[in-house]
């Protein structure tokens, strides 16, 4: 009886070890586990802006746990800095691993804007002032290549089969992964000025 109890304890401990190991790998999580982790928003490090519903939660969780230090630095930058006061330039956060161009521009008419996609970097896009529409489509909706991928600029331009424009305002932010074609800077009503932060997080 004593030996049986000991075996049960060993097996239980081993299974517990496996469970702990798998719990750190979001690729193995259920949708419910992904949502629970995402909605706790501990990863935001106290930044009070809400993530847009368009964000791929599983893709984000996998990227976050793979490069946690980079993501933490990205959100710390957004939390600790007043986006309205930052100089309009590229701000260094962690060399080429994480950096943030701050820009101001007039929003465009739909015919003047193009869908883009990246391979090396993930975008956190945040409209700090003003409003715009952002077109979002999975790369599976790719139609025509307008400009092939330029490795030096980490960008390609394309058209998509299905148009889906989402409002971007200072109360929310977006995350675009390599599988997310996006067309930022569209006018929402009238052409207007926007101030935006784009935090670039290296993929690998």
Keyword list:
204 residues, alpha+beta, Jelly Rolls, three-stranded antiparallel β-sheet, 12 strands, 37% strand, globular
What this model shows, in words?
This protein has 204 residues and is an alpha+beta fold. The chain has one domain (31-202): YhcH/YjgK/YiaL (Jelly Rolls, Sandwich), CATH 2.60.120.370. The chain is built from four helices and twelve strands, in the order ααβααβββββββββββ. The chain has helices spanning 2-23, 31-40, 57-66, 68-80, and strands at 50-51, 90-94, 98-106, 115-117, 121-129, 132-138, 142-150, 155-160, 165-168, 172-176, 180-186, 193-202. Strands 1-10-5-12-3-2 form a six-stranded mixed sheet, covered by helices on one side. The longest helix has 22 residues, at 2-23. The protein is globular and about 45 Å long.
Total discrete domains = 1
Structural class of the helix and strand makeup? alpha+beta
How much of the sequence lies in strands comes to 35-45%
CATH architecture: Sandwich
Describe the SSE topology.
Layout lengths: L1 H22 L7 H10 L9 E2 L5 H10 L1 H13 L9 E5 L3 E9 L8 E3 L3 E9 L2 E7 L3 E9 L4 E6 L4 E4 L3 E5 L3 E7 L6 E10 L2
Parallel strand pairs: 1-10
Antiparallel strand pairs: 2-3, 3-12, 4-8, 5-10, 5-12, 6-9, 6-11, 7-8
């Amino acid at each position: 009886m004593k030996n049986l109890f000991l075996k049960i304890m060993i097996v239980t401990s081993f299974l517990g070890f496996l469970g702990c190991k798998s719990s750190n790998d979001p690729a193995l999580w259920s949708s419910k586990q992904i949502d629970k982790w995402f909605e706790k928003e501990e990863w935001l490090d106290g930044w009070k802006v809400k993530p847009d519903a368009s964000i791929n939660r599983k893709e984000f969780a996998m990227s976050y746990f793979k490069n946690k230090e980079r993501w933490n630095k990205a959100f710390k930058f957004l939390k600790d800095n007043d986006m309205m006061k930052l100089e309009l330039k590229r701000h260094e956060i962690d060399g080429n691993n994480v950096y943030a161009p701050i820009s101001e521009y007039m929003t465009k008419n739909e015919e003047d804007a193009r869908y883009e996609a990246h391979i090396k970097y993930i975008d956190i896009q945040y409209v700090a002032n003003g409003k715009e529409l952002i077109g979002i489509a999975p790369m599976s909706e790719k139609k025509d290549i307008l400009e092939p991928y330029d490795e030096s600029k980490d960008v390609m331009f394309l058209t998509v089969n299905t148009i889906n424009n989402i409002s971007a305002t200072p109360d929310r932010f977006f995350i675009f992964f390599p599988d997310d074609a996006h067309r930022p800077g569209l006018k929402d009503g009238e052409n207007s000025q926007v101030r935006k932060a784009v935090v670039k997080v290296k993929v690998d």
